[in-house]
Every structure is written in C-alpha cells, then in structure tokens.
Amino acid sequence: MAFFFAQFLTGLANAAALFLVASGLSLIFGVTRIVNFAHGSFYMLGAFIGIVLMDLLPGHVDFWGAILLTGLAVGLIGAVVEMVVLRPIYRAPELFQLVATFGVILVIQDLALMIWGAEDRLGPRAPGLRGVWRIFGEPVPKYDIVLIAITPFILFALWYLIARTRLGVLVRAATQDREMVGALGVNQAWLFTGVFALGSALAGLGGALQLPKGGADLLMDFNIIGAVFVVVVIGGMGSLPGAFIASVLISVLNVFGVTYLPQSTLVLMYVVMAVVLIVRPYGLLGREEVAGEHGQVGAPETPIRPYGPKGMALVAALLTLLALLPAFAEPFVLTLVVDMVVFALFAASLHFILGSGGLVSFGHAAFFGGGAYAAALLVYHTGTPMELAFLFAPLAAGLLALGIGWFCIRLTGVYFAMLTLAFSQLVWSLAFQWRSVTRGDDGLVNIWPADWLNGSVPYYYFALAFGVGGILFLRHVIHAPFGYALRAGRDSPRQAEATGIDVKRVQFVAFALAGAMAGLAGGIFVFSKGSVFPTELEIAKSFDALIVVFLGGVKTLAGGVVGASFMTVVEDWLVRLEYWRLLLGLVIIAVVIVMPEGIVGTLRTLWRRIRHSDEEAV
Amino acid sequence: MSEILRVENLRKSYDGFLAVNGVSFAVAKGELKALIGPNGAGKSTCFNMLMGQLKPSAGEVYLDGQRITGKRPREIWRRGVGRTFQITGTYQSMSVIENVQMALMSHHKRIFSIAPRAWKLYRDEAFEFLDTVSMADQADRPCSVLAYGDLKRLELAIALCHRPRLLLMDEPTAGMAPSARIELMQLVADIVRDQGVSVLFTEHDMDVVFAHAHHIMVLNRGELIADGSATEVRNNPQVQEVYLGGGTLFKEDANA
C-alpha cells in the first residue's frame, strides 16, 4: 500500500512538466490553429538552456532563478520562430504550418547537437532538496514533493491569466473567432506572436523544471511530443483543467505501467487516448469544434479536370523516360527511382483522403507498414510464393483500414488525426513487441521477390508497373463520381447530406481504398529491400508522407507525387552531409515560405500569371 | 385540398430554453406558404427539425401521411424533400454545372461508381436545371467566384434535381438586391405552378412575402400566433404588435 502510494506521488510529480508543456501547446493551437510539432523542441531547449544558466548564475538564486530565466529565453526563441517562419504563411491552407514546424524540429535538433554535443547531460539538483522524505516508510524524493505542491499553483496562475486578465479575454476571443477579434482592432499578428511566445515559454519552463529528474538529451523532443499531443487531446483541445487532469492520468498510469506491465509502456497512453476518444469524441472537457464551412483561408480550390493533350504528352514523355531508364542508368539510379515510386504511391494514397476528402490522417504509416508486414509475414512463416504474398499486401492493409476507419471516421479535424495516430501506434507496438511473430526490432529479413523478378532491372519494371498503376488508378477515382462525392462531403457536408450523399460512408470507403493503396506501396517496398522493420510503422513515417503532401500542394492533384519525388531526391543528396537535418529543415522552411500553395500549386499560379490567362477577366 | 406536410406540436428546447414551443401547422399540396417572424422566433430551428438537421424534443412531422420525425436529412431527401439554406452550402471546389451534376449523380444513385468521368455525366440534364434558374450562361465558371444571389439560385437548382414534392427554403432572398428578389420569387412561384411542387419558406422581406405567399404563418418566441391568408395575417392584432416597427406597411395595405 505504501509502495502504491509512493508510486502515485511519482506520477503526480511527473505530471508537472507534462502539464506545463501541454498547456503551452493547447494555447498555441487554440489561438493560432497551428499544430506545433516543434513544441517538443522548445521543451528540449528549455532543458539545455536551463543547465547552462544554472552553471552561470551565482549564489542561491541559481536554481529557481535559472528556471524562470529559461522560460523567458525559450519564450523569446519562440517569438523569433513565429515571426520568421510562421508569420509569412498564416494565409496558407489549414494545417500547412505544421510542415514549417517540422522543419523547425530538424533545425533545432542539429543546432542543439552543434552547441551541446551528443552526450546526455545530468541535471543539477535543486538546492536544499537533494534527499528523500519517507512517506509511510517509502522514500520519495523531496523535489517530487515540491513539484506536486507547486503544480496546482501553476494551474491556478494559468487559469487566472486566461480567465481574469485582458490578455486572457483576447486569447479566448481569438480561439472562438479570429476574424472578429481582428475586426475589433486587435493586432492579430502581435497577439499570435505573444501567444506563441507564451506557449513556448511554458514548454521551456517544463524542460527546465524536470532537469533534476531527467536531465537533458537530444531525444527529448520526440520523446515528449507524443505524450503532449495525447494529453491535449484527452483533456480536450483548449481546456486547461482538461490538460491538467489528462497529465495526471497519463503520468500516473505510466508509472504504474512501468512497474506492473512493462511491455505496455510504449502504447499505454495511446490506448487510453483511443478509449477516451471513442467514448468522448472531443476529449474529457473539450467541446465540439464548430465546423468552419466558410472559414477557409487562402485561394479557393479550382475545379479539377483530367490533363489535356499537353499534360498527357508530358506524362507520357516522363513515363517513356522511366521505361527506357534501365538502358543507360546505373543500378543505384534504378534503386532510387523505385524508392521514389514507392514513396510517391504512399503519398498519393494519403493525398487522396487528405486532399479530396479533407481527412488529415496522422497514422497513415500503419497501412504502408501494415501491407509490408502482411506480405513479409506470409513469406517468412509460411513460405508463400512472392506473387501471392504481394497481392496480400494491399488486401491486408485495406482490411486494416476498414477496421481502424470504423472507429476514426466518426470524428473530425484534429481529433480524427489523433485517433488515427493512436491506432498506428498500436499497430507499431504490435510489430515491435510481439517478438515471437514479428521478431521485434530485428525485423523480418530475406523477403526477396520471385526468381523471374530478382535483379534490379526486372524488379524495376515490376515496381514501376504497380506503383505508377496505383497512382493512375487513384487519379481516375478522383475524377469519377466517387471522387466527386468525396469532395462534396468535404466542401459542404450539410448540402451533401441534404442531397442524399452518405458523407461518412463515402469517407469510410475512401479511407479503406487509401489504406489498400498505401499497402500496395508497402508491398513493393518490402520486396525491393528484402526486409521490413518496425520503423516503417513509426510516427515519423506517417509524418514523412504528410509533409510531402503539403510540400507538393494539398489543393493540387499532383501534389503528393511531386512532393514525394522532390523529397526523395533532396534527401538522397543531403544525407551524405554531416548536418543534413539542419539543411533539410532549412530547405523545408524555405519551400514553405516561398511556395505557400505547395510546389505544384505555386508553380501553377505563376504559370497562369505568365500567360495572363485569367479566365475570370473574361 | 390534401396535405403534403403536417407538423404536430413540434418542440425544441436547448438547456431549458424553449426555442420552438408546440408548433402545429400543415402545408397543402401545390401551396406556396411563408413562415415569418422576428429574429430569434424559431424559424430556422423549425426548418432544421423538418429536414432532420436537428432532432425535435417532442412532436411529430408527417410527409404526405408518413412519419418522418427525427429521420436523417438524406432519408428525408430520399422521400422527396429538397431544401436550400439560409447560408448557402455549395461545393466551392467545383464548377457551377458540376454542383448540379453532383446532385444528379446522387439522384441517379451513382455516388459509389468509380468508372466514368464525373464531369461528363448528366451534363445535358444539368444544363436544363441551370436553365430553369437562369444560370446556364455561368455553367462553367468556378463556383467560388459566384455572386451571392447566384449561389442562391444555384442552390435552388441543386434542390430541384431529385424532383422534390416539397421544397423548404430558408430565407431564399436574403442578401439579394430588390429586383433580384422579385425575380427569384417569381421563379419559385412558377415552379410551384408548373411542377406541382409545394414550397415552405421563411423570409424577412415583407414585400416578397405578401406578393407571393398563398398563406402566411407568423412565429413569435417559438409559438405560432397566426396562420392564414395575407389579409387575415395583416389584420391580426397580435401580429401587428410583434411587427410594430413595420406597422405602416400593414396599415396602408390593410384596405387594399
């Protein structure tokens, strides 16, 4: 019982930092609608800067003074990031900004590596709080007790700021209706910068505050970001008390999970999130998001048409070039093109539900990796011929998507995104921990194609046929009545339902189709590499696809394919360099700022301007 | 005269506030009937309950004798009710004619087909519907550049695609210029006459209402206070009380 209670206290203490970081993310999302992936990076910066300041500051103000100063410093960095990177792209399509924040993650990662090195740092102990107190005979670190004691004050201070001050009124008003706040004379740009700085400062504070418990290392950013999103979603977007309750819930569960069910730790919080979202679709204390049917920012999407003669000729020329490539290219080029085609099909399948359906999935890797694993497991365990196993990849991924989609489709917006993420984490942890079947992180190896396809040239044609075939098929569906119905449900669900379209069912079928196509990409992938590892199911893999879709252009049909090809080539070049993350991050940020409509979208706008063929002028 | 729509004791409360409080009325076949009332009277709430966007707290709705209370919008659409919205709902990423083609694809049960090119389907038929609302000349413009009044007309064309028996129009002329209002309502009156469609509409413009509606209902604070011909409604003291601001209109026209 005493042990039980001590465990509970540890959980409560862990909740302090988590709550600080999560409330910052929640504030930023509420006001600016930016899904800030870089929030974990600010947390990491807080830890490193905290250590530096604690060394520098003299006397007994050092520890607590350094924590407060760290908050200020990270807040300042946040303000700079907001002004330089995000301010130019507020008018871009919704969620586009997350790509920029992903670039920021990469930049901060390499900068931290340059400045502080790759070694983990131990955090200094708080003065006077070095030992333990005994509670019912169990040792509990003094610092934990202090953290538990100050957390309610942090909650109260934040609540007071939001509920009782003028800034708080502005923040709440902007959360409900940004345009109206702007129309009432509030300088939106500075409000956004201020909120972003405040949110970053909270993340920095969290990073510094946990130093005596966890220290600082370069993996902190990714390690916490998952938990932070989970907390914000479980609590309900924009609800501070909700974030508090969820932080405590997740931290306490984690502590007990580590003790009693160690294999659950990777996935426990995602299971909790999935259960909460299935029972309460908007989190514990969240409210339904008001669907912004006319709140679309940026240029409206133009009607789609299949390519005319010129476009067809271009595609045909490109395909001919690809078909003739083996005649003169080196094998490594063929491998690169296969990678490109695989990634392009994967991105195109995400683009199908994201662009046409408006369904932002954060867990699309579940279907790519799911397809790859399905084929690999068949080959590995039953010796199924490659041809059959390959067909099984899209089939299994499609079935998986039917299952996951059944739960997810009823949600919308960010909640939909987070539930897909939770399910993909479930699939990932299955591959990672069910070692007797999947061999865990040793992966499944020796999954080679059939004899007649073995060799770089035959497999190149095989990959090209199925990859390009899949992409063309998806394009065809977009131009068919089903694709139109999918867009109708995105443009105006109200009108679609009032004219007999079952929007949720259309989305459900589209989700399954996208899953199957991602599975097909996974099938091509696994036989080209000869192996598959749990990394193919990771969050990072889902985000890769998300980022290239946005980079290519959400509102253009070719966006996914072009973005994926661009990224494959750029990465192939950059990874040879030492600080490739920094460069890749800068490239992403540059593309995002220069081409706010994505690569294809911006090129198209430019092309129209050059030709002066503005149809509306007629 | 038989009824197309019958509403019995319809009620909607939000956390104890009664937005609609026991409303009963009927719409006859081939009738053009108006539902008027000040802002906040419960008109849109009423409409949303008729079309299934909102579930009533109590009461019943019958379409041609069949109970449709609380059914989903697409089920009510299937049974022959079309609707237009107070704030238009159109497919912004499509062209004008594709908006109509989309409604026709739904009408012809082709939503899940993946073989044909959608923009070639039912194009001629869609043109006829656009012609009905005088929008044929704008067929290939992107929907996102249309003027508001044109969006309203496009929405009417979309609503007609399923050959509805009853049309529910929520403020069909809001945001339109006076001449365009008269044109649109004339069009609706023609559709009622030529195609035998019944129409129930809400409206704030009294000129439009008194010029076109066969019968008028007045809603105030969730309760129906009048239901009758234009003259009856004009002479109703309770209605005059509610519309004190527009009183001159009633008095001048009362003797006409």
Explain this structure to me?
The complex is a heterodimer of chains A (618) and B (256). Helices cover 72% and strands 2% of the residues of chain A. By secondary structure, chain A is mainly α. Among the domains of chain A are: 2-218, no CATH class; 330-538, no CATH class. Chain A has a two-stranded antiparallel ribbon. In chain A, strand 1 and strand 2 form a beta hairpin. Chain A is globular and about 75 Å long. Chain A starts with a helix and ends in a 7-residue tail after the last helix. Chain B is an alpha/beta fold and 256 residues long. Chain B folds into two domains: 1-80 and 164-256, Rossmann fold, CATH 3.40.50.300; 91-163, no CATH class. Helix content of chain B is 37%, strand content 25%. Chain B is built from ten helices and ten strands. In chain B, the strands form two sheets. In chain B, strands 6-7-8-3-9-10 form a six-stranded mixed β-sheet, with helices on both faces. Chain B has a four-stranded antiparallel β-sheet with strand order 2-1-4-5, with helices on one face. The two termini of chain B are 27 Å apart. Mean pLDDT of chain B is 88; it is low at 252-256.
Put the structure in a nutshell:
The complex is a heterodimer of chains A (618) and B (256). With 618 residues, chain A is mostly helical.
Q: Give helix % range of chain B.
A: 25-40%
Largest sheet of chain A: 2 strands, antiparallel
- By CATH, the architecture of the largest domain in chain B is named 3-Layer(aba) Sandwich
Name the helix and strand elements of chain B from N-terminus to C-terminus, one letter apiece.
Answer: EEEHEEHEHHHEHEHEEHHH
Secondary-structure blueprint of this entry?
The complex is a heterodimer of chains A (618) and B (256).
Chain A: H1 2-32, H2 39-56, H3 62-86, H4 97-116, E1 132-135, E2 138-141, H5 142-164, H6 166-176, H7 178-183, H8 188-209, H9 211-214, H10 220-235, H11 240-260, H12 268-279, H13 309-328, H14 331-356, H15 365-382, H16 386-408, H17 413-433, H18 435-438, E3 444-445, H19 456-479, H20 481-491, H21 493-498, H22 503-529, E4 531-532, H23 539-552, H24 559-574, H25 580-594, H26 598-611
Antiparallel strand pairs in A: 1-2, 3-4
Helix pairs in contact in A: 1-5, 1-6, 1-8, 1-10, 1-11, 2-3, 2-4, 2-8, 2-10, 3-8, 4-25, 5-6, 10-11, 10-12, 12-17, 14-19, 14-22, 14-23, 14-24, 15-16, 15-17, 15-22, 16-17, 16-22, 19-22, 20-22, 23-24, 23-26
Chain B: E1 3-14, E2 17-28, E3 32-36, H1 43-51, E4 58-63, E5 66-67, H2 73-78, E6 81-84, H3 96-107, H4 123-132, H5 148-160, E7 166-170, H6 178-195, E8 198-202, H7 206-212, E9 215-220, E10 223-228, H8 230-235, H9 237-242, H10 247-254
Parallel strand pairs in B: 3-8, 3-9, 6-7, 7-8
Antiparallel strand pairs in B: 1-2, 1-4, 4-5, 9-10
Helix pairs in contact in B: 3-4, 3-5
